[in-house]
């Protein structure tokens, strides 16, 4: 089925692309500095800054 094969190629190619970052690098850097210097859990720092904790992982 040629239509199915071309659909698979398109979905495979687009699924490997990274999503754009929602938060600026400066905000993420600030959160990392706070976690390292203060030692508070990532979830608490993220909540204080108004961002999701998953944005600080990785």
What keywords describe this structure?
single chain, 58 residues, mainly alpha, 0% strand, elongated
- The best one-word shape is elongated
Query: Number of helical runs?
Result: 3
Which structural category fits the helices and strands?
Answer: mainly alpha
Order of H and E elements: HHH
Tell me, rounded to a whole number, the average pLDDT.
76
Largest sheet: none
What's this entry about, in short?
The protein has helices at about 1-15, 25-40, 40-50. The protein has about 60 residues and is an all-alpha fold. InterPro entries: Transposase_8 (IPR002514), WH-like_DNA-bd_sf (IPR036388).
Written overview of the protein:
With 58 residues, the protein is mostly helical. The chain has a domain at 24-58. Helix content is 62%, strand content 0%. The protein has helices spanning 2-15, 25-38, 42-49. Helix 2 crosses helix 3. It starts with a helix and ends in a 9-residue tail after the last helix. The model has no long low-confidence stretch (mean pLDDT 76). It comes from Streptomyces yanii. This is Transposase.
């Amino acid at each position: 089925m040629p239509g199915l094969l071309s659909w698979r190629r398109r979905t495979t190619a687009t699924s490997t692309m990274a999503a754009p970052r929602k938060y600026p690098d400066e905000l993420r850097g600030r959160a990392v500095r706070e976690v390292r210097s203060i030692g508070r859990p990532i979830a608490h720092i993220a909540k204080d800054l108004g961002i999701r904790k998953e944005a600080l992982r990785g």
